[in-house]
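Appendix C. Worked example: LLM class flavin-dependent oxidoreductase
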Amino acid sequence: MSVISLDNIPFSVLDLATVVRGKTPSDTFKNSLDLAKHAERLGYNRYWFAEHHNMISVASSATAVLIGYVAAGTSRIRVGSGGIMLPNHSPLIVAEQFGTLASIYPERIDLGLGRAPGTDQLTAKAIRGENFETVHSFPRDVKMLQTLFSAENSSNEVRAIPGEGLDIPIWILGSSTDSARLAAEMGLPYAFASHFAPAYFSSAINLYRQNFRPSIYLQQPYVLACVNVVAADTDDEANYLATSVQQFFMGVVTGKRDLLPPPVERMDDIWTIYEEAAVKQMLRYSFIGGPDTIKSEMQTFVDENRIDEVMATSHIFDHKARIHSYELLANVFKSNTALRRND
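Step 2, the predicted output written as structure tokens:
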């Protein structure tokens, strides 16, 4: 098996705008901007927010607003959605919003699209109103977005102003083989949510590569893998910090969601063996440890799966520790090219 140099792999950030215990969404947004500024300086390629609703610890519901906030506070790093849940929105509204963002911040905006609601069914009904029972066609809506962004759409009666004629990269996001098939058929880059849905990761990216059709947007398949990362100076410290994300996912498993809690000395005092098994299954693609551990495990992951880009999300309670984790991860990937680009 050939070794892929980590120096040649772009590395990026997924921010869920996690609200930690004792803080507010206002604190979270300030920390997101601070992290984005550090990420830009460290050579990170993208900074994405994910659309979620009705989750007490996730404040990224107004995704386009946060993208604009971070893009305004940075100057080079690409900023985008990972993703916009398209069934919640009219393609025209998405085209206008991202056309506006791309007009203000040219060549810096990404549009990642997902087919899930990003919430529970009751909240999805509140979002969609009378359209809740309507049959949604994700492929059709993606194609409609491509049409609205095209210069050729200028002769149509319905136009995205701004948005029309702008180069706004569209990504397909997913956690299943369905999304992989669509990304392959449309010749679009594919971002997989392996940070919480690892089960179909290998089969999905293999299906995507095997069925990829070159398009005007992309000539070769491109796989971005989102993973959990908790890096610290030592393995022991990282394992301690990682108990916050373990508790976070335990809330997902049990349905008892709460603000991101501080780390604890022993998870065995908190979870049952069944909860532990479920959480560890969801966190399969997590990189937890000191620099040497992270580098070794990340190298193996990239080689085995032929990853084109790694996107890291880090649920770490202390903001300074979170910044430091991203600093250590950047050192794993950083190349002279990345440094020159972001100096």
